[in-house]
Structure formats: structure tokens, C-alpha cells
Amino acid sequence: MLSKLTDCEIYCVGGKLRENSLSFIGSETIGTLKNFHFDAAFFSCRGVDLRFGLTDSNINEAEMRRILIGNSKKSYLLADDSKFDVVSFYTIAELSAVTAVVTNLRPKREWEERLKQAGVAVYL
Q1: What is the pTM of this model?
Q2: What is the mean pLDDT of each run of 10 residues along the chain (124 residues)?
Q3: Which of 5, 15, 106, 117 has its CA 20 to 30 A from that of 28?
Q4: Burial of 104 (0-12, 13-18, 19+ CB in 10 A)
């Protein structure tokens, strides 16, 4: 769909293609991604936990997400209700590292309070 837009540039960061996620990973991907800077980044992860923050099962994808967050003016975590209170293998970042969480259900009261304390907006 994006390739049909005349005002949209598409870049591929290279590396190894992960067949199950259709994402590129590896040192080539990370090296290239470090050179890009974004107004906004939209990404997901395997789990979001009050203690451990954002986590993922794949170290390479977690590192790419960490770079996206660090090189973006604003970062938006896309996390449906099944991602909350889940801890995966590798830490991406603390909750306070993201601008906002976009989710499908209103978070539990404890989550709302912690996200507010961390300065993270919630969009349903």
C-alpha cells in the first residue's frame, strides 16, 4: 500500500529476514538503523511489565526496538491487553522510555497510575 503513495519514501534496512515476523535482523540491520532518526516510531513487543518494562523474546528485535525508541522524537508502543503483565526474555526499555501506549482496552488501575507517573499517555 505504501509503495503506491507519491509522498512516501520507503527504506529497507537489510540484514537477515526472519520468516515468522517478516522483519530484518542482524548486525547490518542494527548498524543501518542507528543512522536513521524519526519523528515518530510505532512498534510492538512480546510483553510489558510494571517491574521489567518492555521485553521481547528475540535479542535482535529487542535491540532494534531500543534504537527506534532512542532515535525517535516520539515512540508509540502498540500493545493489546494480552501483552500487559507479561515478561519475555530480553529487556528493551523502561516504561518511561515511550511517549504513549496504544491499546485495545483500558488498562487496570495500577497500570494507569504507573503509566501516568512515567509520563506515558494511553490511547484506546
Answers
A1: 0.90
A2: 82 88 90 95 97 96 96 98 98 98 97 97 98
A3: 5
A4: exposed
